[in-house]
């Protein structure tokens, strides 16, 4: 589509797409905060697109599983990806920066939101980021980060460590980044 | 942070499908380490569906390793993994009860052990699931002969055959006896090979499994003795090494499988002389039926320049010889040099800078290096019906009933 050429009388402009760009939706977070977003950006979320199509949007879309802080982040992502003229290279760079500063807790919130809202690109990006952070970490770091209590006995743990000793080489120190 | 506090207060729960999507993106060493996080994680990671998903999307080749036989009683097996680190591949859990365990053969992820303690016994163990099956010894138990193992995976189950080759002299005529065991019928079968008319000396090298056929290296690596246990014919087949090969009693050469092909690699010398690496040739078995080889690549003698760590290691007249092929990448050949395992790149005609150090005094034989690889589809070892009383014994040996650990 000739998106670059934004001539209002241009023949190639899809009237439906234009409508989506101007129409705004309101998203409501679990803690009651409301956010305005263009429909074209919002429908990058398959879940929201379905709600809009089924016409259950009715002005305000409640998202009871996403808190305000997380929703604000998700909306920043959606806006960038719906932006006209943003090249793939630009989007890639944005994605990289978008996730690089996030703490693990924030990444978890975003991955859950992206999963719930069905935003594939964001989901992929955040999953990759989480795996990147985890890969050289210790078992203890993973337990702490994922809030998991070990249910192995110290003997069992020792045994597994012995069996796969090579897997314990090259583990970073437990510094949260 | 506020959100983090909320999370821990509510008892954090991470959906399994997201967790799995994250885990498949981790390198193999992390996967093995994180089995230790909790029982639930170990369960997820050990699940066959996770493993197939993991291997399928793995950018690198599936994990593999080499087993070196070592220790005075051969009870210990060193494990050189794809990550270029060495670990003691702790002998299987039953080794305390059966001292003197020896690795006889490997096929995919299965290891065949033999113990001669009290009475000879064979065990087949899955190296990743650590499940193990003991099976009865054939009546001609005193005879010793090279053994081959071949495993196949069908519908998530592994089936396997074990073949022993036993030489005997039948009224001054040379002959070979075969003893085969199949997991499907759980019994041994013994018979005389029909077409073996000339003298065969089997080399002390692991049996090579290629195209579902067992290949023993024989007559100082001048030929391969091939036998297909699935065709249950009584016939052997001989395949010669390349005619033009410069054979030094097999000392300078290796035969093995890499990816889809059978290769023969040899060096024109077995040591560094005057700071020169001998020339080498790599052949591929082009036509299996006709036994025709073709030269794949070759390298000329090369002067050693002191440019990398490996050059500094290679300084004496000590033997330097090839020991194994990379199971997936035919451009990599592993060399043995004074207790080091060096990685040789066929493309570059030179060694990679990374190498592993092995305490060579504990290695029993550098000819007996067994490759192990994780199958593309993880499979289960069938539970034998032929010897259920012995199985009960294993339950005693290993009280941990959690069978899902890798």
UniProtKB/TrEMBL annotation, chain A:
Annotated region (Disordered), positions in chain: 1-27
Top-level taxon of origin: Eukaryota
Ranges where the SKP1 component dimerisation domain occurs: 125-167
SUPFAM superfamilies the record matches: POZ domain, Skp1 dimerisation domain-like
SMART domains, per database record: Skp1
Keywords, alphabetical: Ubl conjugation pathway
InterPro entries in the cross-refs: SKP1, SKP1-like, SKP1-like_dim_sf, SKP1/BTB/POZ_sf, Skp1_comp_dimer, Skp1_comp_POZ
GO BP field: jasmonic acid mediated signaling pathway; protein ubiquitination; ubiquitin-dependent protein catabolic process
Stored Pfam families: Skp1, Skp1_POZ
Gene3D superfamilies linked to this entry: Potassium Channel Kv1.1, Chain A
Entry function: Involved in ubiquitination and subsequent proteasomal degradation of target proteins. Together with CUL1, RBX1 and a F-box protein, it forms a SCF E3 ubiquitin ligase complex. The functional specificity of this complex depends on the type of F-box protein. In the SCF complex, it serves as an adapter that links the F-box protein to CUL1.
Protein name stated in the entry: SKP1-like protein
Automatic annotation (TrEMBL), chain B:
Protein's name in the database: F-box protein
CDD domains: F-box_AtFBW1-like
Residues in F-box domain copies: 8-54
Lineage summary: Eukaryota, Viridiplantae, Streptophyta, Embryophyta, Tracheophyta
Organism of this sequence: Sesamum alatum
InterPro entries: At3g26010-like (IPR055290), Beta-prop_At3g26010-like (IPR056592), F-box-like_dom_sf (IPR036047), F-box_dom (IPR001810)
SUPFAM superfamilies: F-box domain
Pfam families assigned: b-prop_At3g26010-like, F-box
């Amino acid at each position: 589509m000739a998106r670059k050429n934004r001539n209002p009388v241009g023949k190639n402009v899809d009237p439906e797409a234009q409508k989506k760009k101007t129409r705004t939706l309101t998203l409501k977070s679990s803690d009651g905060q409301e956010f305005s977003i263009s429909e074209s950006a919002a429908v990058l979320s398959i879940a929201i697109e379905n709600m809009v199509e089924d016409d259950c949007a009715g002005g305000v879309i409640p998202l009871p599983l996403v808190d305000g802080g997380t929703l604000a982040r998700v909306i920043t992502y959606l806006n960038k990806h719906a932006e006209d003229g943003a090249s793939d290279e630009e989007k890639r760079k944005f994605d990289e920066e978008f996730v690089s500063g996030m703490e693990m807790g924030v990444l978890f919130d975003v991955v859950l939101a992206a999963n719930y809202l069905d935003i594939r690109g964001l989901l992929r990006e955040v999953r990759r980021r989480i795996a990147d952070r985890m890969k050289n970490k210790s078992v203890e770091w993973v337990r702490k980060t994922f809030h998991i209590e070990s249910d192995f006995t110290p003997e069992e743990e020792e045994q597994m460590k012995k069996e796969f000793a090579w897997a314990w080489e090259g583990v970073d120190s437990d510094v949260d980044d | 942070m506020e959100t983090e506090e909320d999370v821990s207060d509510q008892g954090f729960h991470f959906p399994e499908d997201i967790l799995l999507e994250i885990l498949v993106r981790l390198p193999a060493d992390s996967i093995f380490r994180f089995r230790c996080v909790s029982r639930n994680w170990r369960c997820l990671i050990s699940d066959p569906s996770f493993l197939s998903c993991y291997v399928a999307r793995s950018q690198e080749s599936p994990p593999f390793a080499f087993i070196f036989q070592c220790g005075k009683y051969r009870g210990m097996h060193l494990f050189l993994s794809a990550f270029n680190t060495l670990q003691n591949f702790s002998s299987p859990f039953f080794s305390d009860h059966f001292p003197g365990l020896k690795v006889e053969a490997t096929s995919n992820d299965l290891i065949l052990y033999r113990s001669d303690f009290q009475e000879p016994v064979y065990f087949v163990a899955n190296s990743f699931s650590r499940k193990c099956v003991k099976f009865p010894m054939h009546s001609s138990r005193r005879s010793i002969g090279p053994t081959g193992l071949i495993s196949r995976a069908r519908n998530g189950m592994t089936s396997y055959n074990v073949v022993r080759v036993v030489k005997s002299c039948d009224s001054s005529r040379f002959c070979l006896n075969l003893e085969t065991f199949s997991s499907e019928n759980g019994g041994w079968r013994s018979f005389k090979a029909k077409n073996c008319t000339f003298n065969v000396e089997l080399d002390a090298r692991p049996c090579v499994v290629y195209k579902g056929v067992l290949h023993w290296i024989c007559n100082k690596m001048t030929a391969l003795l091939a036998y297909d246990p699935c065709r249950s014919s009584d016939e052997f087949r001989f395949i010669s090494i390349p005619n033009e090969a410069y054979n030094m009693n097999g000392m300078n050469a290796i035969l093995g499988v890499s990816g889809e092909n059978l290769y023969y690699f040899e060096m024109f010398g077995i040591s560094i002389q005057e700071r020169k690496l001998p020339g080498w040739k790599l052949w591929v078995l082009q036509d299996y039926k006709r036994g025709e080889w073709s030269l794949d690549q070759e390298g000329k003698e090369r002067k050693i320049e002191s440019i990398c760590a490996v050059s500094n290691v290679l300084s004496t007249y000590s033997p330097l010889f090839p020991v194994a092929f990379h199971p997936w990448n035919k451009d990599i050949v592993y060399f043995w040099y004074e207790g080091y395992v060096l990685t040789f790149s066929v493309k570059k005609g030179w060694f990679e800078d990374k190498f592993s150090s092995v305490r060579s005094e504990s290695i029993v034989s550098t000819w007996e290096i067994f490759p192990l690889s994780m199958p593309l589809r993880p499979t289960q070892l069938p539970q034998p019906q032929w010897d259920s009383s012995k199985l009960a014994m294993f339950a005693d040996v290993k009280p941990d009933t959690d069978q899902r650990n890798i």
